[in-house]
Every structure is written in structure tokens, then in C-alpha cells.
Amino acid sequence: MQRVKIKQFVVELVKKHQYQTTRLLEMLRELQSRYYYIPSEAIEQIAELLQIPRTQIISVIEFYSFFHLSPRGQYHILISDSITDHMMGKLSLMDYMVEKLGVGIGEVRADGLVSLDNTSCTGLCDQGPAGLVNGYALTRLNKNKINLIADLINQHKPLEQWPQTLFQVDDNIYRAGLLLNCNMLPGDGLNAAFKRGLTETLDEIEYADLKGRGGAGFKTATKWLFCVEEKQTERYVVCNADEGEPGTFKDRVLLNSYADQVFEGMTLCAAIIGADQGFLYLRGEYLFLYNQIQQVLQQRRDQNLLGKGILGKAFSFDIEIRLGAGAYICGEETALIESLEGKQGIPRNRPPFPVTSGYLGKPTVVNNVETFIAASAIALHGGAWFANHGTRVSKGTKILSISGDCERPGIYEYPFGTNVQQILDECGSNDAMGVQIGGPSGSYVSDVEFERKLAFEDLSTGGSFIVFNRSRNMLDMVQNFTHFFAHESCGFCTPCRVGTSLLKKQLDKIYDGHGSAGDVVELERLCQLVNTTSHCGLGQTAANPILTTLQRYPEHYQQLLKTISYEPGFDLDAALQKTRELTGRDDAEAHLSQTGEKDEWHD
Ligand SMILES: Cc1cc2nc3c(=O)[nH]c(=O)nc-3n(C[C@H](O)[C@H](O)[C@H](O)COP(=O)(O)O)c2cc1C
Ligand code: SF4
Predict the structure, then answer these.
(1) Among the four 39, 301, 331, 462, which has the fewest Cβ within 10 Å?
(2) Are the C-beta atoms of residues 125 and 249 closer than 8 Å to each other?
């Protein structure tokens, strides 16, 4: 009976999604939320209806951490594993949760009601420890909230009846600048652009020297122009709201309070490049924003700002919001496009770049949320308004997500060129040992470098700014970031798939006090290998946390080393214990020594 019901549900589901393979993730998401996993009957049925191999669907399910082939609890709880959550006491809270809910980490309770696990950063570092219940964000977790959650679950209370305080997400904007103070009304940027002329508006964006805010800093006007110059007429605009870099949460705030301006920027881009369709790829962790930004879109449609006849022009454009499913790599633009096409988010070879061959092989512009906001503001105020701020190379402002050891974690907008010390003073940090800028793939800046500047030519960042005070153990951060990369490697290329897990193992060995000088040398060699031979940006930066801290703080590694030249990762002597017991021997000859005597590090 259940089998028949599942099949009926799938028939309706596939019909609703118009038999489009590109919408596979949407179908899987709906199945996951209804059955708490993707049943094999559903997989078979989708395969038949979409005429794709079963194995293709299974590989997609296995790729995304929010999809499961075996049942999760009716209440599936994930706790964020970001370093900032750890700094706010995540580990002891997790122990408490295990005790209160009666379920182990990575397990489903025997009654099937609840399951618990870790997840990568949920984009709530300013209000952690954070988590998700059935995909919805939980903030500022503490023991009282966990008691309440356990009661609500045991009473089988539907999520809609849980107190809203559990789900409260604050913007925490502490410093607004050019963009956050812009106060644009829907249509302002487009009106100005059409009045000035679209080519002239692209010239203004060029004059503003707007560079992409997602991390790589590619010139926005150049990207749009490349797309315009492509011969194919079917073109796409994609807003990258995947925001998976630990410590980054500014796009969450921009979409919560400035969504209309994001859509304005996307529409402007569509008008300039000649696109009919746009996508906003929203990370699955921001499910709580989904309905409200759908409403913003609908209002724009109602105001006739989108769709045919926009502002009197024969121009049709609409935007669809697509949700990710828990894969950091999908922030990489080509992996994101693969994901939009309903596939595993494996980065493509570049070239060709998305502007030439993107979504469905058509010219596609992919930009960050903040980039689209800046473009719409430039359309209204002109290029000079923007270019008058910042440095010679880095114009305008940057919106930062500040978290960690400071009194006021939240959102801060600074002109490029602002130094780290000023930012620390303003967010309430007076005991900083260092700052991780740009997330795990970025750079660690120590207290002797606080005069360095926020700028593409000095400290470039997608927005993450995590403060560590002097009470912190630097290697906790390095270990957390290294585990993150090993977990998030998409597994496509060997240097990253194998390399990140070797880095994790080697670092753990040193962290746990079993490392020798030789292990540090080997660790550094591995870092170079992973960084130089990996296929995409994830692998190419995965060793940065180790390399930058090894350079600056060798003593932190040194003090953990054993005074031997080498200790193997596998304990041969312990493995022989069973044999010793069986033979009744425990003399010196029955033991093996595998460690060297020399201490190269201290030589
Ligand atoms: C592993 C990885 C993750 C990324 N995550 C994001 C992201 O979450 N948001 C984003 O805008 N760009 C991200 N990027 C950069 C994108 O590939 C791309 O450069 C960017 O979306 C372009 O937009 P922009 O020019 O406006 O910066 C990521 C890159 C890599 C290698
Ligand atoms: S570098 Fe890592 S994330 Fe990138 S393609 Fe290779 S395995 Fe995937």
C-alpha cells in the first residue's frame, strides 16, 4: 500500500515539475521532507518518468548531504560545526543534546522520532551555537532551549507550533555604508538605467570598477560584456547565494532585508545582456528565507517590474529561486550550474567559462548577491558615486560578516582600504591574537599585521572575518578548517579527495601529540601537493589554514611534537597484543618498537 502511495506521490511530483530533469533536486527535496528519506520506490519511479538511469539519481542523492537513502528522524536535527560554534560551546551542548534527546550523533532514535548529526557552517556565526531542525534555522542554542526542543519533540509538536523565539534570526547590522544606506525603491535602478541607456549604464559599472564580491574579484562590467558579445541569443543570469564559506553570513542579511535590490540588480543584468530567465541559487540552510523572498519576487511581478512590458520596454524576464542541498562546493560557479541542471555539483573544466557556456551550455552571468546590489545602486547613482570610495585598485565598499571573539558580531560595511585594527576596534575586540579573513580558504592575519588593509591588493575576502583572542588554541581553528575541507571535497579529483583526508589525518596525528618533526615536514609537502594539483578552488586553497599558520606560528606545532623523528600512524605493537595474549608472552622480544630516536625539529 505504502509502495503504491509513494508511486502516486511521485507521479504528481514529476508532473508538477513538468518532467524536467533540471528540477531533480526540487523533487528530491520534496520527497525528503515527506518521507524523511528518498525511498527506493520513488527513485525507480522518477527514473522511469524522467527516462534517466536509477544510478544517476542515486549518485545525486549521495552527493548532497541533505538527501538520504535511509530514513532520518521525523525531527532531523543538525548542529553547525563551524569554528565559531565551537568557540561558543558547541561540543558540550552537543553532549547535552545527545543526553536529552536519547540519540547518538549520526543516529536515528529507536522510535524513529528524532535524529541528530553535525553539519558544516549554517551561516549563523553571529548568533550561534546554531543548528537546523528539518532544514529550519535554530539560533543561540543553550541548555534551556535544548530542554524545550526535547519536550516539543517528545510531544510530537509540529514545527509550526514551536515558539518563534527558537527560530529568531537577527540581521545584526552594526555599520552601514554606501550600499546598506542606499534606500532604493523597487524600480529605481532600472528606471535610471533605461533613462540613461543600457550601454551607458554598463559604462557606469565599468567606470565604477565594480569587482565581484564573491571572492575572486573579477570585473563585473567585463563579465557582462563578454556575455553580451556571445553569439547565442538564449542567455541566463544567476545569483550565487550559496554562501557556504564558514564565517560568511552577509548574503543572508542582504536577502532578508535587501532582497528587492538583489532582484533589481539581476533584472538590470538581464536587460543589459539580453536574458529571459534568472535563477537565485539559495543555500539550503537559508530555507527560512525562501517564502519571504518568493513574496518579494511576487510583489515585483505584481508591480509589473518583472515580466512583459517592464517599464514600457518589450522585455520579458523572470527569476526562479532554487534551493541547494548542503554542499559547499556548489558555491563554485560551475558546480552551481551543474546543480541547477539537477546534477551532482562537480566543478567543470574552465575554459569555457560560464559567460560562454553556462546553464544548459548557454551564456550565463553568475554573480554574488552583494555584486548585484552594488550594480543596481550604481545604475541609480552613477559610477563616480561608487568609485569615489575605496582605494585605487579596490573601489567602493565591502560588506563583512564579523564573528568570533568580539562584543558585537554582525554585519559591517567598510570602504576598501580600512585597516584590520579599525575594524577590530569597532566590533569590540581588544584582545585579538589574530583574524581569519576570507574563511578557511582565506588568510590568517596575526596581531603584528593589523595595519593591513581590506582590499583586493592586500586582504581580499568574500566577507568572512573571524576574530580569535589570546585564550584560543590556534590549532583548534586549523583542525576545524582542515576537517571542513575533507568533508566538503566533492571527490572528483584525486589530489583533493585523497589529499584533504590525508591532511586531516596527518594534522590530527600532530594535534593529538603523536607527531614528530618528520610529520610536520610531510604535512607541509602534502599541503603543497594538494594546493598545486587540485582541479578547483576548493582543493587549491584547502591547505591554506595549515600553511599560513605554520609560517606564522611554528612554535604552536613544535610544542605538540614528540622528541622522536617519526611515529607511524598505525600502532603495530598494539596490533600484536591479541597474539601476545594467545601465546601467553609479554617479554621484551614480544614487543615491537617503531619510533625513531632523533628529533629533527629541535635540531
Ligand atoms: C569552493 C568555492 C566556493 C565558492 N562559494 C561562493 C559563494 O558561496 N558565493 C559566491 O558568490 N561565490 C562563491 N565562489 C566564487 C564563485 O565561483 C564565483 O567566482 C562568484 O560567484 C562570481 O561572482 P562575483 O563575480 O560577483 O564575485 C566560490 C568559489 C569556490 C572555489
Ligand atoms: S579540487 Fe576538490 S572540490 Fe574541487 S573538483 Fe577536485 S575534489 Fe572536487
Answers:
(1) 301
(2) yes
